[in-house]
Amino acid sequence: MIRISKLPVLPALLACALLPFSTILSARAPDSASALFSDPVVATGKGFQVKRSEVDDAFINYNASLVASGRSIPETQRAEVRSKLLDHLIINQILLQKATDSDKALAKQKTAEYINKARTNATSPEAFDEQIKSTGKTLAQVTAKLEQDMVCRDIIQHEITNGIFISDDEVKKFYNDNPDKFKIPEQVRAAHILISTLDPVTHQPIPPDQKKEKLKLANELKTRADKGEDFAALAKQYSDDPGSKSKGGEYTFPKGKMVPEFEAAAFSMKTNQISDPVETQFGYHVIKLLEKLPGSTVDFAKAAPDIHDFLVEREAEKKLPDYLEKLKAGADVKLLAQTDDKPAGTTTPTPAKP
Question: Are residues 305 and 276 in the same domain?
């Protein structure tokens, strides 16, 4: 595992529209009541305008991405976040005007692959459809938004990385100067069958009587595996973990990457041992330890491509601010209204003159 903390080609706020699919699905649709009020234009440029409701929607989605990771936007930073989100929306509009037919076709292909993967990873087709429905958006609307964001991301990445040259000596120097980044810690390769105890739509714990039946199933699968049934086949048929089900339940991981109960069991087992059901916040896991992997160091030849990409991205990050400013200057961008924390339709009273 090459532990290079890659720098994003786009800053977090600029890239916020291209959220993980689960976050897009969980984000609340804009309050329909805002349509009853005025929705002022807050920015214009050559061939486009941005409305207040668009900033509101972007703020909701960005906040949802933070909440999903256990964070939130501090009250003192909300105005700054909205300002940066407006900047993001402006830049997206400019980039969309630059997009060629081939840019759009590639984004369409990538988005289709992204959505198909999200659908496959859902616990069931019905759960996927329900998540889409809960947003107040159609799948077509979600898809169109993703395609736009994909186009913008690809254009920026191409234009700011074009012309960046990283020599072999620079790559080798980074490898030699950062030995800790190329150490692979002790790992285990294990397979598991997850019998979920969470509702597939609400993700809340199921009632005790249903949970008892889930434990019964987990014990039955443990017995079948002990008697020699193919563990990978059982995982593909019964596991509720979309991330590993198609791979026979298999994961390779070091300490600190899995929930504590799962990790403790996996690292304490012997090769080919099958565990009793292990309960975590996700449900009951029947685990089979496949292999223990001692710590090692990644060879330079294997690490070199990742180092090269990292160094290119680091240089691109330096070029990004000037690139974005030139984009906006060339588009004659004008800001027309405040983008504070009040939703579209609200107004700030004008103080009386003394």
Answer: no
